[in-house]
Each structure stands twice: as C-alpha cells, then as structure tokens.
C-alpha cells in the first residue's frame, strides 16, 4: 500500500524528471538572427531637438519564421551616446529572408555639439560607431539576442555638397 509520504516522493520525482525534460523543449541549435543599422535619416534638425529615422535590417538565417517582439538599442558615435531607446512593434521575418524596419527617434545633441563638431572637422577621417542592444524574438516564449556591432562612418560620404 502506498502511503501519503511515498505518493509525495513519487510525485516529486515525476515532477522533477518531467521538468528536466522540459528544458530540452526550448533549446535550439539554430543561429541567431543578425541586425544591421543600414542608414540614419535626418527628419528634422532644430537647435534643441533632432528627429531621425534609424533604418534596420534583420536577417533570418533559419528555416522557420522569426517573430520579432522588440528591440532595445544604444548607438554611440565615438565616445558619445547619440541615442538609446526601445522599439516595441511585433513583426515576422520569413525563413531565409531579411526584413527592413524604421525606428523614429528624437534626441537633443546640443550638450554634445562641441564634441560632434570636433569629430566632423575632418570629414574624410573615419569616425567609429557602436550599436548595442537586445533583440527580443519568439512567439510564445521570449528569446533575447544580444547585439554588438562596430563600424566606422566617413562624414564626407554622407554630405552630398562635400567635394573632395
């Protein structure tokens, strides 16, 4: 005859074994999606407020749909934090496809204008930038993809009137 104590041990054992198996349900060996900052578009630039559109591309290397929940981002130009924020619009990227999306941002670069002017004095000299953040994916269970991209921009390439 099974006593209450034995039943409790048996139930605990089954629960433990069942939960250990659950962990493997959510593991996958699929590669993470890649996120690229493709373009920064100036919408409006006033003295104390600047509006930009950040153009991102997400590459889905997997054989299944990728549901994107949100993107937290920080963008540095040299040592200056240009902007940070969160984009909370859900969308889906098809298997082995890319998707583009735009993130509107507002910032005030006035306190940093002196440092920015120093960087832009030599428009042919590359300026390092850094994109950091977290892309949250998944339909039912969230999966965080940590982002860290580095690169350089050459200001002269972005100024159409600039002649070399």
What does this 3D model show about the protein?
The protein has one domain (30-158): Sandwich (Immunoglobulin-like). It is built from three helices and eight strands. Strands 3, 4, 5, 7 and 8 form a five-stranded antiparallel sheet that branches. Residues 19-26 have low confidence and may be disordered. A hairpin with a 4-residue loop joins β1 and β2. Helices cover 21% and strands 47% of the residues. The chain has helices spanning 4-25, 113-120, 155-158, and strands at 34-45, 50-59, 66-77, 80-87, 91-93, 98-107, 127-137, 143-153. The chain is an alpha+beta fold and 164 residues long.
CATH superfamily: Immunoglobulins
Helix content: 10-25%
Please indicate the percent range of residues in DSSP E strands (runs of 2 or more): over 45%
Number of domains: 1
Largest sheet properties: 5 strands, antiparallel
Shape: elongated
Mean pLDDT: 83
Label the structural class: alpha+beta
CATH architecture descriptor name: Sandwich
Order of helices and strands: HEEEEEEHEEH
| Distance, first to last CA | 92 Å
Q: How many runs of DSSP E, i.e. beta strands?
A: 8
CATH uppermost class: Mainly Beta
| Total of helices | 3
Gyration radius (Cα, Å) is 23 Å
Low-confidence stretches: 19-26
By CATH, the topology is Immunoglobulin-like
